[in-house]
Write a structure and sequence with these properties.
Helix content is about 70%, strand content about 0%. One of its GO terms (molecular function) is nucleic acid binding.
């Protein structure tokens, strides 16, 4: 599916949760979930905004990595020709 969209798939080592972005988000979510029972709604809203910010930053990093990978592929192709 990714290849159909001309996307480069990067694999990370298995069993290294510190290298898996989704594990970071999941850990944050679990911590927030257990804390929500004792929080007021304004604090919950701040947590949601912070999580949104983290996800946005992660998304921007992924886009930068994809752009670097594409430019690297382009420069490798120009060396071949």
């Amino acid at each position: 599916m990714a290849e159909e969209e001309n996307r480069l798939v990067l694999f990370t080592p298995p069993y290294h949760s510190d290298l898996q972005p989704i594990e970071l988000i999941w850990a944050i979510t679990k911590k927030l979930n257990s804390a929500f029972n004792n929080l007021f709604s304004d604090i919950i809203q701040c947590c949601i905004r912070k999580t949104d910010s983290l996800i946005k930053n992660l998304s921007e990093k992924i886009v930068k990595i994809e752009m670097l990978a594409e430019s690297s592929e382009d420069s490798n192709c120009s060396n071949i020709i």
